[in-house]
Batch of 2 targets.
Target 1
Amino acid sequence: MSAANERNGFVVFEGVSKRYQSLLALNDVSFKIQEGEIFGYIGPNGAGKTTTIKIMVGLLRSTQGTLHIGDHPMPEEKSEVYKLLGYLPQNVAFQEWRTVNHALRTFGKLSGLKKNEIEDRIEEVLELVALPDVRNKKIVELSGGMIQKLGLAQALLHNPRLLVLDEPLSGLDPESRYEVKQSIKKLGKSGTTVFFSSHILSDVQDVATKIGILNYGRIMRIGTLDELKSGFSIKHAVNVVLSHDSGRCREVKSLRGVKDVEQPASNSLLVHLDSEADVDETIHELIQSLINLGCRIRSITPVSPTLDEVYLQYIRRGENA
Amino acid sequence: MSLLLFKDELTGFYKSKVMIFLWIGLPLMAVLLHLWSPYTGEEIPFTLLSTLLVSSIGGTLAAVMLAVSIVHEKSQHVYDLFLVRPLKRWNIVISKFFAVYTCIAIASILTLIFGVAIDYFVMGGAPAAILSGAIESLAVSLSMMAVSSSAGVLIGVVAPSVLVGVILMIYGGNQISVLPMLPNMLNISNPVPFTLTLGVVTSCVLLLIAVFLFSKRQFE
């Protein structure tokens, strides 16, 4: 059994802290990422996302705690880790005199690719990031979005087992965002472990198989989207879909425990419950009342919060803590 | 040193026209200096002018090129992509040092060859004493350029901005210009070998410090 398996994770952060003089940028951060997972790391600006990533890739040293990637402790065995790792920084930059081909060839060679593999890989990664016609262009001629895609291409060049992406979708137009998200999903399916940070929640929701929420340098919560939502799943609202409306269905507003009733469509009701109400008891009475009022119920479901709502809840908890 | 990075840096200087400006610019400046030098009744050999030019600005040029290039690339986060690859960090700065040094050394040698060639056609050749003095002077200049270049690397590594880098370099350049005078100050009978050795040793020490600091540096 490999050390990574013993630690039960391909990437294992244990009690990692980072202090810049008086500022505690990361505070006792611990998490594990399994091989093949796509881990979305979200948090507001200044939460510590980039600091976490820079510690992960060895550009910063942690003040406290340990980090293992694969079987290797970081930064002690970083040369070994760099063979497994592809990294896209937040503000990716290349020497401007290089052409795309020249830049990728250099990074390919530095990553240990053999001469005969490099040309094919350059072709493949440029195709993968939807940047096929720029191979002979100078970096200085590329747009910001193209440079971002080129950054992703260089990270993928040597088929890394772990891809670390800091805000990979920032600066991309909607079409490019879609393409890059598809690429990340494809990589995840092929077994590549992906760690990416973002403050655009819909992107995380679309791509990540696991999500970590960071605020004020602390991990607020880690889990799958469903697990994160489950903390809020009994939200104080239920959605009732009707197969027949007798015209009296909205009268349930007078029920004990019901705060308000909206009718977003002719065949549905959104029933807001009192925050103090016993949810199970109120829903039971709601069903009975609707039947008594001659309404036919097709379905009744607690309203599931969006990732935005879950995120805001955790962020506010952090602010109040 | 990584040969790949060294070749890349040279390619960079070639593509960004730095090489052309150096290799054509330095001999051209010697011509301008020759044309503008006051007539004293006796023409100053071109070889001598070329040597003076190389020794006066070669080191500063190399140091500023290195310091500005490293500070700029550091602030642009260009190195982040190199640092996350299985490559020793020192390769990055040492390759840059050798690339700039090679460029400036070739420019200096070209300038001297140009000076000798002009003297050959105009005067039928430079006087033997001037020629041997020029070669000695070039050797000393090259060793001082190595010192300036390594100081440029060190300042590039520690300076927080291009402006600070240039200020430090200009200040440091003045101190480096004292080194060739040391043999006279110390009454050393054979100054050239002493200066060459001093240049090599000082360059190595400065480069070692620069490499150490670059290796320990955190890239925020």
Note: Chain B has nine helices and no strands.
Target 2
Amino acid sequence: MQTLLALVVGGLYATGIFMILRRSLAKLVIGLAMLSHAANLLIFTAAGLLRGRPPLVPEGATRPPGPTAEPLAQALVLTAIVISFGLLAFTVALLYRAHQAVGANDLDEMTRTDR
Amino acid sequence: MPLGPLILSGFLAALAAPWLHRALPRRTSAAVSLFLLALFVSFARRLPDISSGTVSLARYGELPRLGFALDFRLDGLALLFALLITGIGTAVALYAGSYLHEHPGLGRFYFFFLAFMASMLGLVLADNLLALFLFWELTSLASYALIGFEHQRSTARKAALQSLLVTVAGGQALLVGLLLVGMMAGEGGFSLTTLDTRREVLHAHPLYLPALALVLLGAFTKSAQLPFHSWLLGAMEAPAPVSAYLHSATLVKAGVYLLLRLFPALGGTLAWEVTLVCVGGATMLWCGWLALVQEDLKRVLAQATLCVLGTLVLLVGLGTPASLRAALIFLVAHALYKGGLFLVAGNVDHEAGTRRVAALSGLGWRMPLTTTAALLAALAMAGIAPALGFIAKEGVYEAGLEHPARVTTALVLGFIPTVAVAGIAGVRPFLGPATRTPLEPHEAPVSMWLGPVALGILGVVLGLVPGALEPLLGDAVATVAPGVPRRPLELELWHGFTLALGLSAVSLAGGLAIYAAREPLRRLYARLPGARLPTGWGFSAVLEGLKKVADAQTRVLQDGYLRHYLLITWSVTLGLVGFTLLTKARWWLLPPGWGEVHFVEVVVATLVVLATIAAARAESRLAAVAALGVVGLGVALLFLFFGAPDLALTQSVVEALTVVVFALVLLRLPRYHPSRPPRPALLRDVLISLAGGGLMTGLVLLASAAPPHPHVSDYFVEHSVEAAHGHNIVNVILTDFRALDTLGETTVLAVAAVGVHAILKLRPRTEEEEP
């Protein structure tokens, strides 16, 4: 299953990179969203997979009865999900505003600020 | 007083001086001067200790892992410099109060002046390479502020910037050099005391040459050796007291000090000797002779200072006991007469209103005391008995005579223009027929002639009673040449009819002849090609070239196209990471096959991939957003399958919110671009994307196949209930074990929210809205 998920991660990355290389503003945002999914899944998969064993301690016990899924990676990904949502919201707002200011949907027409 | 408080008191005085100046504008210069005199006396009283071989050491805090320690050590060499710094500082402080008495920035002057003084003391007293470097840079900064003291003038700003860039660039080289030296010397190698005992280790080290080159670069820029000399000429933009103090007596000697200080550890090799003798000799000859064609009194003196600095570097390069001794005597004599002459030049400028050499003549009877100081200094500069300068020059010649004849020839040729400059700057403006000057010249106030006269008299008295210098110089020589048995320096005016005396006569006669022929020489020079190049043209050319390169590079790298930036970033990442993966990764460790695969999981995984492709290929934004939602929920399901219910929950909620945000904003953006990119560009993007995806797949596989090892999360699993009373380990990590990280995350979200609000709601006020 590791191999399959690794391929999914690769697919998400490839599509995400391809999308952020487009000229359209909207595609840039969609590409970013794909990249954040890809990164989350990457951390999750790389930490090792274990089916149906969430890192929970049963009531009354002091530690899980057996091996569990990696809790640290889950904590990291949880943070990453929330942060990437913040990033996405900010990017969308920024692009919307940039579009209003420049009047273009084309990234190639937004080159003047850098030159 | 111990050494640390002595230096600290200088910095504290620097902070206090502007306040004092505001409260008591007329008394500050006397107070600063007395303060420096007190420091001078405090150092002078240590002379007996030093002579009896006691070295005071003091440590004020250290950072052992960096090799840094705020160690100070007072030995003969440090004491010699400390006395010069505080002694000449006393005269200059007294002088500056009158010279700048109407200047609104006088308080600022005192601050930088005292800060410089304290940094210079720190520099010569430091016993740690890194502490030394720290003070070294502080002197560069203070020099920058003092050269640009009259910052209203663009020439002053430019000169200040040039001195800063040159000396700080040299300082960077020096830092790397000192780090290398400290590491090469091994345990405790950053301490100068230890360094002196590691001579053999350093000389045999394969990195000796690079380290030496870097250290020398620092010393040469500071002491204005060719080809870095032009900043010192520009530094003449500074007020006269600054030129006298920093740019003749102390700061520019810091490079020479460093060479002397490191001589026991690094010196005495062929590379050392050849480099120092060649660079010093070239500086001495080139700058010495060009002093004759300068027209500004201060620039004449600065050019002559360059000549002396070259001579000192050459002498340290020769590295024999005689030459080191000669260097130290010459250094003292030069500090006395050149400090005096610069102050005299300030008096002339102040009272006569011009510094043009050609316009000055016959000031003698109208400024008798200044003239006295000038003549005394000129006597020393020309190396005429009974001034100390004579003894110094004899010492230089005697040191040269131990070496092949070409060294002595160079030294004589380097001294001849100095004699002529003594005439041009120290004699000519005061004798002869009186000329009209912009101001009607009259004697300067007592505070302005006292210092130069005292320095001049000291120069002659020390020449008559050179034995007074014997203990001080003897101790300094003993520091620089530790292995050499200590013997009397035999500082005497009359050595009998020696070869050195004959050379003195030759150089004096030559100097007088050059002085007489200076006008034809000047005209001859003016006809040479390149004579009209402005000072520092090389520096300006380098700076302009640097700007052009930066401009061109920015134009290429920052062309304004987002995808070019991304392409560069991804290509570099792919290249570096891919290369490492291909060469270093142990692919054979990967488990073969697919492992245990469940049907539902395959369906969801396939769904995610298909939805991703659909989102990318969608013709409308709405379709893309919908497909993206499928991707997000698919990922949430994958999280759920592999034991992460929290992630699945969060992912679903965020996914829903994302769709809302997209629907609100993304759909207001214009429709997709109908045009298709050209085929090669599309191919390039596809290739980069596929390579990127492949790289990431490889990374995941390698990371998850890594052999298991004790993991930080084991601790969390073990202690979740016991320590934090939580049964959901992920939650415990987020809210307890790593609570600060979560706080950071919350902050990021808050900032993003504020940012979104600011972007959407705040608008620049348009013209109609303005009242």
Note: Chain B touches chain A through 102 residues (CB under 8 Å).
